[in-house]
């Protein structure tokens, strides 16, 4: 028995081909929510949706989209609405990472990361608002990061800026969309074992573990559980909130 009600609603999950986005889509599908898996990697998102459809739960619908572009976002939201007839939840999980030192960051790289991580999240949510207004239980969930809380972990200053901005737009959109019963919340993961961290060395992983109260790196399913709470019908009185899921990493 699930204690969260997700069934018979439709979610858009960006960055869903792998990592936290995929784990979130999987948890939603397993609990009866229809999910549009959105990712810029067309082949991978198609394969990931196929895996979820093989589970025999609710439908997973793949859509290839680069969320940093306005036209692709508009086409993606229309495709989801045309396919399912409704949109109830938007989970902004698409994100890219850099590791340049502050003095090495190029403007083009900065703009690319802000374009995907922050602008992409805002405009996906904005484009879906007309559909969310029609929903009985409308939700927007933004996948931020402990880096947005701390001003970065390691180098990744552009990543930290994008995630800090995501926390700001979460609270701002919560205020503006509250009259329409659309809740807007953020989840702040700590270091989590996903493909985005494939470049990390064992020494770097050991350092992250040593700074974590629970002594381990997070798993994608740990984060997905918090996201699914915010997506649930039961989360109707929670908005403008940030849920920290980091094993105590932020408090040190």
What does this structure look like?
This protein is α/β, with parallel strands linked by helices and about 250 residues long. It is built from eight helices and seven strands. Strands 3-2-1-4-5-6-7 form a seven-stranded parallel beta sheet, with helices on both faces.
Total of helices: 8
How would you write the strand order of the largest sheet?
3-2-1-4-5-6-7
**Low-confidence spans: pLDDT under 50, at least 5 residues?**
none
* Content-based structural category: alpha/beta
Tally the beta strands.
7
Secondary structure layout:
Blueprint: E1 10-14, H1 19-30, E2 34-39, H2 42-53, E3 60-64, H3 70-84, E4 89-92, H4 107-132, E5 139-143, H5 146-150, H6 157-177, E6 183-189, H7 202-210, H8 220-231, E7 242-245
Parallel strand pairs: 1-2, 1-4, 2-3, 4-5, 5-6, 6-7
Helix pairs in contact: 1-8, 3-4, 4-6
């Amino acid at each position: 028995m699930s204690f969260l009600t997700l069934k018979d609603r439709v979610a858009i999950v960006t960055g869903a081909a792998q990592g936290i986005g995929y784990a979130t889509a999987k948890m939603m599908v397993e609990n009866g929510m229809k999910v549009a898996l959105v990712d810029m990697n067309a082949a991978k998102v198609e394969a990931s949706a196929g895996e979820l459809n093989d589970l025999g739960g609710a439908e997973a619908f793949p859509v290839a989209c680069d969320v940093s572009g306005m036209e692709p976002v508009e086409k993606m939201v229309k495709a989801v609405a045309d396919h399912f007839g409704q949109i109830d939840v938007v989970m902004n999980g698409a994100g890219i990472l850099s590791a340049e030192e502050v003095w090495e960051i190029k403007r083009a790289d900065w703009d690319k990361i802000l374009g995907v991580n922050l602008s992409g999240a805002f405009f996906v949510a904005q484009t879906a608002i007309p559909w969310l207004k029609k929903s009985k239980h409308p939700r927007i969930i933004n996948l931020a990061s402990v880096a947005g809380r701390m001003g970065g972990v390691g180098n990744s200053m552009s990543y930290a800026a994008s995630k800090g901005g995501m926390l700001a737009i979460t609270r701002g959109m919560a205020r503006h969309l509250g009259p329409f019963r659309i809740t807007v919340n953020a989840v702040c993961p700590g270091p989590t074992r996903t493909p985005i961290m494939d470049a990390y060395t064992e020494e770097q992983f050991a350092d992250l573990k040593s700074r974590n109260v629970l002594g381990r790196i997070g798993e994608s399913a740990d984060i997905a559980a918090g996201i699914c709470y915010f997506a649930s019908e039961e989360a109707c009185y929670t908005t403008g909130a940030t849920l920290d899921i980091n094993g105590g990493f932020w408090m040190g």
